[in-house]
Amino acid sequence: MLTTVSTAARGWGVSLMLAVFFSASVSAQDESLSVLETGLNELVYRLSRSVVTVEASRATVREAQPTIVTRGAQSLISSGLIWDSSGHVLVSASMIDGFDRLRVFLESRVLDARLVGIDYFNEIALLAVDSLTGVPVTVSDAHTCAGHMVIGLGNTFGVRASPSIGFCAGARPDGTLQFTFPVTSGGLGGGVFDLSGKLIGLVSGAIGARNEVAIALPAYRLANVVAYLLEHGDRLAGYIGISASDVEVSADPTNDLTAMTTSTTGQVSSPSPHFAVMVTEVQPGSPAMAAGIQAGDILYDVDGNEVGSSVELATLVRLHYPGSRMNLGVVRRGRQLTIPVRVGAKKLSPAPVIGQDRAQAVSSADSLRRIVRQLREQVRRLEQRLDALH
Prior knowledge:
It is a single chain. It contains five helices and 21 strands. Mean pLDDT is 82; it is low at 1-14, 256-271 and 356-367. The protein is 27% helix and 38% strand. It has three domains: 43-59 and 72-235, Thrombin, subunit H (Beta Barrel); 238-345, PDZ domain (Pdz3 Domain, Roll), CATH 2.30.42.10; 355-390. The longest helix is centred in the first third of the chain and has 47 residues, at 2-48. Strands 14, 15, 16, 17, 18, 19 and 20 form a seven-stranded antiparallel β-sheet that branches. Strands 1-2-3-6-5-4 form a six-stranded antiparallel beta barrel. It is globular. With 390 residues, it is α+β, with helices and mostly antiparallel strands. The protein starts with a helix and ends with a helix. The chain has helices at residues 2-48, 222-232, 287-291, 310-319, 356-389; strands spanning 51-65, 68-82, 88-92, 101-106, 109-119, 124-129, 149-156, 159-171, 177-179, 191-194, 199-207, 213-218, 238-239, 242-249, 261-262, 274-282, 298-302, 305-306, 325-332, 335-342, 344-345.
C-alpha cells in the first residue's frame, strides 16, 4: 500500500514539475513574442516617417466623335523614399514619367513636387519637395543580404506605409536584389529595410505568378545616382533593340554554327567551351535592325571586349551614350563579322499595373470555385434523392 502511494506521489510530482516547466516555457515564449511584436511595431513606425506616397497626374482629352470631346484626368500612385533633409525623394521613374503634376503625401500633408532628373540606366527618378518633413533613410552599405529577415514598406491599396515581412533571397545576375514579399503598383519606389532600420534596397519591380517576389535596386548604388542627378540632371542610357539568350560556344568563335549549341540543349563539340550571346529577336525600327543585326547572330564581342552573357551585354549597351557607336563582334553562318551600331536612347519601361488586376482575377477565380462547389453539392443531393426513389 505504501509502495502504491509512494509511486502515485512520484507520478503527481513528475506531472507537477512538467506542468510548471511547460507553463514557464509557454510564458517565456509568449513574452518573447510580445517583445518581438513591440520591437517590430516601433521599427515600422520609425521607418514609416521615411516613406511617402507619390501621386503623378495629367489631364487627358479623348475625342469619341468629331463633335464630342471628353476631358478627364489620369493618375498613378506609387511610393518614394526621403533621401535627405533638403527634401529630395527617390521614386520609381516609370511611375512618374510623362505626368504634368507630382504630389507627395506624408501623414496629413500634401505637397507639390518637381522632377530633378531621371536615371534611365536604373529607372529611378529624383524629386524635390519644399518644406518636406519626415526622416531621411539611413543607407546600408551591404552588397548582399541573403537569408536576412527584412521589412518592406510602401503604399499598398491606399495605405501609405504598409509593412511586409520577408527574407532576402540574394543578388540576381543583373545585380538587383530579390526578396520574398509581395508588391503592388503602389509599392514601387518603396523601401526594403533590415531589422536595424537601414535601407537595403529601393523596390523596382516584382516577379512571380502573383507578384509575390519583390525586386529592388541595392541601396549602396543610390548615393552615386543622386549625386549625378543633382549635378547633371537626367542620366541617359543606351539602347539597340534586341532580345538575346546565353549560349555555349566553341573556343573559336569563327567555327561553324553547327558546332554551337545553347547551354540548355546538350553538348558542345569543342573541348574548351565558353559563353556568348545569341540574338533571339530584333525590334522593328531599332538601331540593331538599321545596322543589319539578325536573329540567330552570335554576339561574342563588344568594342574588343568579350561578352559572355545577355546581362553583361545589356549592361554594356546601357553604358553607351545615345548617339555613340559600338562595334559588335558577330558570327553568322560560320562567318566572323564586325558590325557597327549607332546607339539609341533607352526609354523607360511602361508603368506596370501590379496587384489590382491580379486581385480582381483572384477574386473572380475564388467566386468560380464557390459556384463549382455549390453545383457539386446540388448534384450530390439529387443523386441521394434518386437513390431514395429506387
